[in-house]
């Protein structure tokens, strides 16, 4: 299992921690799935502050359980994740964070009663740490129905018990594009997401431990993705936002557009410590040396690129949600696969699997979620 940066150390931290309490679904909150696969769904609307406040009110004590518990265990190792270190990281990142996200975080703190400073510290952790993941997008002639399908596997330590606090948030902003994220109670950065224009986002961390401490004078992808979900109407607009952003660290980004008139996907490699800081590949790109082979109507980079290439070659022209779920399972990191999402960016649907106790997300049911139903109401 390949992990990068200080998330190796996080795994060590949480391996010795006790399991947190299971999340309780607040009364009257909508859910999808059943039993251990149940996922709360929260719909918020209005200004950023109003949406944050509504989210905090509905999630209630689960914000403190999820985010507070996460920080509590991290603080046992102050040489890595002390309040001072996280405050400094947030202070460096904050000038590059969209004001809408800051306002939402303030509303989340007021609505949940959980301290704003603690939310800021928790949202700074991804900046000084890293994780390994997988991403694939197929579209058009590569699929059975001509839709864009995209995989986002989040490979992260399960010992932190974040999977006990799953939530799907549907944002219906007063200004901006409606969007949705499968996330954790109280985390409003975007590790992945989809908006009502069919823009789908995913990433893979690639920063080696040898490059720590990382230069944080720029926008972290989790905040950039929220901006893109708010503002991007087309693939070209989303790509331009990446190209113009002051990026940090090393990541692969996967950006898809499911609309038939602008359908396609782009893979970026962000490599800010290098002289060439951004690489961009579309499908079938002859200069894409990051993978064992390139294919038309497809981009990918996963935890097992050989397996991904073989699967993509074998199933070309026949991909649907079921086959993308099978591919998601196949390339998932074993023993650290926290949440997996398969997107249909054309039909505005998702299939979501969270880890359960010590069971990887890839072994769980992928629960269907129809985003289009929520934005039509």
Kindly name the structural category.
alpha+beta
Q: Low-confidence parts lasting 5 or more residues at pLDDT below 50? A: 1-21
- In terms of DSSP E residues, the strand content is 25-35%
Portion of residues within helices:
25-40%
Output the radius of gyration.
19 Å
| Major beta sheet summary | 9 strands, mixed
Describe the structure.
There is one protein chain. The protein is an alpha+beta fold and 377 residues long. It has one domain: Penicillin V Acylase, Chain A. 33% of the residues lie in helices and 25% in strands. The strands form two sheets. It has a nine-stranded mixed β-sheet. A six-stranded antiparallel β-sheet has the order 12-3-4-13-14-15. β7 and β8 form a beta hairpin. α3 crosses α7. The longest helix is centred in the first third of the chain and has 14 residues. The radius of gyration is 19 Å and the shape is globular. The relative contact order is 0.16.
Short description, anyone?
The chain is of the alpha+beta class and 377 residues long.
List the topology elements.
Blueprint: H1 7-15, E1 30-32, E2 39-46, H2 48-59, H3 61-74, H4 78-81, H5 83-93, H6 99-112, H7 116-128, E3 132-140, E4 146-155, E5 166-173, E6 179-184, E7 193-195, E8 199-205, H8 221-231, H9 235-244, E9 250-257, E10 264-271, E11 278-281, E12 298-301, H10 305-314, H11 321-331, E13 337-344, E14 349-354, E15 367-370, H12 371-376
Parallel strand pairs: 2-5
Antiparallel strand pairs: 1-2, 3-4, 3-12, 4-13, 5-6, 6-7, 7-8, 8-9, 9-10, 10-11, 13-14, 14-15
Helix pairs in contact: 2-6, 3-7, 5-7
């Amino acid at each position: 299992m390949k992990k990068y940066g200080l998330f190796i150390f996080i795994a060590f931290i949480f391996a010795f921690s006790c399991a947190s309490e299971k999340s309780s679904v607040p009364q009257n909150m909508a859910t999808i799935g059943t039993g251990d696969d149940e996922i709360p769904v929260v719909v918020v609307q209005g200004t950023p502050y109003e949406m944050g406040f509504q989210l905090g009110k509905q999630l209630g004590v689960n914000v403190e359980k999820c985010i507070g518990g996460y920080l509590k265990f991290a603080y046992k190792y102050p040489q890595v994740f002390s309040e001072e270190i996280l405050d400094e990281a947030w202070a460096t990142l904050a000038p590059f964070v969209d004001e809408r996200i800051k306002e939402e975080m303030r509303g989340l703190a007021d609505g949940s009663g959980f301290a704003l400073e603690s939310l800021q510290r928790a949202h700074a952790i991804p900046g000084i740490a890293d994780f390994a993941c997988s991403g694939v997008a197929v579209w058009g002639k590569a699929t059975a129905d001509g839709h864009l399908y995209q995989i986002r596997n989040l490979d992260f330590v399960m010992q932190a018990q974040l999977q006990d606090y799953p939530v799907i948030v549907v944002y219906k902003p007063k200004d901006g594009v409606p969007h949705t994220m499968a996330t954790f109670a109280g985390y409003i950065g975007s590790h992945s997401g989809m908006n009502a224009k069919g823009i789908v986002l995913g990433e893979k961390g690639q920063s080696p431990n040898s490059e720590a401490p990382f230069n944080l004078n720029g926008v972290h992808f989790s905040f950039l993705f929220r901006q893109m979900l708010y503002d991007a109407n087309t693939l070209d607009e989303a790509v331009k936002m990446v190209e113009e952003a002051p990026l940090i660290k090393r990541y692969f980004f996967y950006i898809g557009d499911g609309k038939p008139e602008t359908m396609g996907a782009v893979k970026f490699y962000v490599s800010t410590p290098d002289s060439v800081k951004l690489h961009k590949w579309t499908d079938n790109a002859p200069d894409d040396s990051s993978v064992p082979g390139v294919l038309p109507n497809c981009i990918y980079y996963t935890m097992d690129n050989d397996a991904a290439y073989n699967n993509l070659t074998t199933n070309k022209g026949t991909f649907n949600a079921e086959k993308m779920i099978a591919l998601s399972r196949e390339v998932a990191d074993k023993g650290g696969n926290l949440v997996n999402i398969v997107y249909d960016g054309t039909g505005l649907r998702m299939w979501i699997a969270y880890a359960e106790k010590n069971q990887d997300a890839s072994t769980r049911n992928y629960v269907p979620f129809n985003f289009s139903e929520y934005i039509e109401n």
